[in-house]
Amino acid sequence: MGGLAALLLLAGAGPARAQVFLAARPNPEFTIGPLFMRASVSPELQAATLDILWSLVIPPTRSGSEIAQDLYLLWPDEVDGLKTPGPPDPTLARYVEERGFIVTGEGRLPLSVQTLYRREQHPPEPVEGGAPYVTFVRQGGPLGLTAPVTYVRIPWTPMLANRTFLVRLRMGLPRLVKPREATWVENAFWGRRHTASLTFNDVRPRAMFPLYLENRHRVIRLADEPSQLIINFAHAGTLKIQDVFPQTASRRKSETLESTEVVSLFLDHSEGRTPQVLTVQFGYYTGWQSWAPVLIPIAFFILGNLAGPLVMFVVRRVGAGLAGRIHVDPGGRAERHTGTVIPRETLARLEPGVTTHEEVLRLCGPEPEEHERFAAPDRRVLIYRGRRVVPRRQRRFGWIATVSGWDVEHHEVELVLERGVVQDVQARVRRTHLAQPEEATR
Hints:
This protein has two domains: 2-285, no CATH class; 326-441, no CATH class. Helix content is 18%, strand content 40%. It has an eight-stranded mixed β-sheet with strand order 7-6-10-3-2-13-16-15, with no helix packed on it. Strands 18, 19, 20, 21, 22 and 23 form a six-stranded antiparallel β-sheet that branches. A five-stranded antiparallel β-sheet has the order 1-4-9-8-5, covered by helices on one side. The chain has helices at 2-11, 90-97, 184-190, 209-214, 292-325, 344-348, 357-364; strands at residues 20-23, 31-41, 48-57, 71-75, 102-109, 111-115, 125-126, 131-137, 149-154, 165-173, 177-179, 193-200, 228-234, 239-245, 250-253, 260-266, 276-284, 326-328, 336-339, 369-372, 379-397, 400-418, 421-434. It contains seven helices and 23 strands. By secondary structure, the chain is an alpha+beta fold.
């Protein structure tokens, strides 16, 4: 299940943010290390800021002056927001245009150096002119328009060869954070979720691969130094991280930044040019969304207890309405009886002074309502009560008929017996009209 979740996370992550360093001359003898790629994400989710910090590891048989050369960076996306004043480098634009690409943007990125060991607080020292870049795409071809790619030239500075300094390249990435597809219910209750990815040595983007293939002999390898991919999430109090890939990545609170969650992955230099990826699926919630994990179960519990009586009430109301207007009579008997209704023919067979108590029970039924008086022990009264409901049918379709109303007859027969013989018979019938048959049985 963990592997499947990781594959799904990568599938929905969109293009990974990767980088490849190139030297100006082929087969560089030096390596890069340490290397830190540090992205900063805030709840506004606008252009994220990326800092790339690194130094060079030079063989002991070489000096910094011997390997001095410009470095180049291939970045598979556009950059925006953070720029340094200065004219663009026309050689970069000419280089990509000669290979059939179309320039979509150019300028200069902030470049600086900072010391590692100075005790007092010392801000990074900017490199004059920054790092010129060009952003380009390719149109046409069998697969159509490509995603943008940025080619950056990093001018040589002696600080690159000084192990007590780190060079920092800063850029703004408007598309580092990708929205994750979700239903409106998920967005309403849990907030919008996003995915952020950083990758090292990934050259799969279509506009990037031709340049990598042409210059693969200039690729600078990773040194045996502690290098990391890092994503800082500000406002950790309103942050919810759903998933992190790979599982070896670490999560912790920042030791120096206030209310910041840090997700990091150490790069393995033994992987060579194999892509190494760090992907985080996350979301920022505000207000009542922070209470959603508690409120939603409570709401379901309350609704579950209220739904039963509410559904039964609606079913009864609807069922009663249908029963009052539709009559189903599969047996051909339209009338409905409750209690005991004695037919007139049976009443005619009850003769005062002749019919006995046993004959009354046989003719009228064995369970009458019986009244006696202590003052007259030989005298008793038997009462039979019953109701008969008759529909006023309009249209008939086989067993089903529409009904305009119901006629209800309330029957009551009172028999007075003395010494076990009938002395008097009283029969009363009361008729009413109802809209629904259930009312007749109340």
